[in-house]
Amino acid sequence: MNYFEFLDLPRNLDLDAKDLEKRFYALSRQLHPDLHSRKSPAEREQAEESTAVLNDAYRTLRDPIARAEYLLKLEGFDIGEQTTKDVPPELLEEVFELNMAIEEADEDQLESARARFEGMRMELDGELQQAFGKWDATHNREALTAVRGLLNRRKYITNLITKAHVPDRI
Amino acid sequence: MFQIEFDNDKIVGIDLGTTNSLVAWMNLTRPEVLPIVPSIVSLTPTAEIVVGEKARQELIDHPDRTIYSVKRLMGRGIADVQEELKLFPFQIANDSESIIRVLLGEKTFTPPEISAFILRQLKQDAEAALGQPVKKAVITVPAYFNDAQRQATRDAGRIAGLEVLRLVNEPTAAALAYGLDKRQEGIIAVYDMGGGTFDISILKLHDGIFEVLATNGDTHLGGDDIDNRLLRIALEDLQSEWGEDVALIGEAVQTLRQEVIRAKESLSFLPVAHIDFAWHRKRYHREITRELFENLIKDIVDRTLGPCRNCMKDANVTPEQIDEVVLVGGSTRIPLVRSAVEVLFRAKPHTELNPDEVVALGAAVQAGILAGTVENQLLLDVTPLSLGIEISGGVVSRIIHRNSTIPASASETFTTGVDGQTNVLIHVVQGERELAKDCRSLLRFDLKDIAPMPAGMPRIEVRFLIDANGILNVTASDARTGKEQSIDVQPSYGLTLEQTEAMIDAAIEHGEEDLQAAQVALARVDADAILLAIDKAKRNDAWVELTDADREQIDNAIRQLQTVYHADDHHAIRDAIDVLNDATHKLAENMMNTAVSGALKGTKL
Fold it and tell me: What is the biggest distance separating any 2 CA atoms in chain B, rounded to whole angstroms?
């Protein structure tokens, strides 16, 4: 049983957080090992196992990015490899500049690079939201291809943000 | 008919603390707690184990045979405790490697065995108070305890003859005790500074569900550190005033330690305290103002703030979103700690419950949840540390992230690197650092008896499950055939399964006398019940209907039971109960008949 089935949800990318939480709490009240502690060892083990799946499912589906990656995997997309083919050339230029800034340890330049990348990620999240909507409306594989491309780009940008992080001065 | 039955499933809640331990249980709808037992264990010169207050005196008379704060050693290796050894008078046996062995006089014990002595004392206290055997328990642990420390705690319970139904995190237990579920929704921060550990947990409350969002802490930060700070200053004073170093005289240090603890405690409600210490006709006196005290300990209190901020970040909440703050642990009585918490969370903390008792009370509530007597409440806790496996280059690949709700699981597929390879060795670590050597080594396991195949062909799926106790379980199967894969687990620290079993066996042997005492107590409970029942029966018509001989036989049996009642012989008590039971057969029968005829009289024909 996959996580969507476990929580009795359609394979959609846009999920209502409140509704998801409600399902999680309701299932916890049924499955949690604390509520089965007077049963047989086999039943207790079953409670432990099924609650682990519930928790794993909730943790995965509640985060939009983890949710999208999970769905891609379910639909047979290979998301393990990070490719640069989804990364636009202007971004590669930015990376070159960022590496320079890191080398020179120019804090101001790093700070502004980071702000730029964060802006890019926010813009990208808007695009992702649209792509999610397209999949939910059609359940068409092409929509997922677009989602995968955006996720790859997002991962790339997130790495850049981490790289451009000015170390905390303690 | 006068036989009584026990509720054999009584589950107690135990707070096994660094400084003090407590046992509690649910009494109908309210938790009830027994008085504090100091977590001190001593082996007397007559080879008797004493625990609690009795052991506190031994700490001064026989410091080399007495141990306190053993919780600091639980689940740790010798390399981990070098810092502790400078500050604590632990005497470690030379053969300690992956398991520490502590010397008490001429004998050695592992930390779980010493904790088991404390647990056994609590178990006996509960049995005496409840008048029934206690075999099941919920035991609390610091939220930030790692896998090895949790396992060591569970081992201690088993050695003490307790089935440990659940390990509960101390701050979470405290939240349960406060019954904050009366508030339907909200975010709660629990700040728990005990004797040796510091925990911070942030919980979300929703209609009886206590969902832990994040937890953080330091398993080596607590009141002990404050005591050590004061002690060091006093020892330095002594050095300069007396020109004498008493730091190596166990008896002197322990007396002085108790003196500084007294001063520390009184500074929580007085502006000035005094340290008075006499030794070999010399006297040392020092006045400490609260201001000086606060300057001395400020850095210790500040060390709790970093984990608090990280915890809020992980929980994704701001101080403004926190509705309630709960204080737990004796160290939270210190005004400086309270004000630091108030400033950080911008909320006045709850202090209504005794901070020493609140964890045990919560453990009792959790015991009630497991027993099914407490309804509608449910704890959803998290694992405090990320779980990872070592991959090439000594780098950690994280498979379960910290603050994941438990039980949590992850599956990984492993294969071979060389043709015909039949086993794969896997190293599991816990922690947040990038390199395995900087994390806590949990265990190594060997996937054995892999069918020889070309490299990369075998597919062994390993499932990692962190259970509701926060303890890791590993199983493996062949991904192609689904067949279970044999696996040989070597814990990095702590006891192997065989060692624990051996200790349980040994404990059962040594426990003979304990058992004896418990059986006497239980026999007396039965005796009380039957004597009370007969007392009532004597006011019944059935008593009058007996012959004089019957009545005399019963009275004789009662006297016989009363005679043996105070002897320490449960067989004699049981025998006397049996005799009395036999003697009352006729009485019981008559009572049944009276009840029936009474019922008939009330029936209209």
Answer: 101
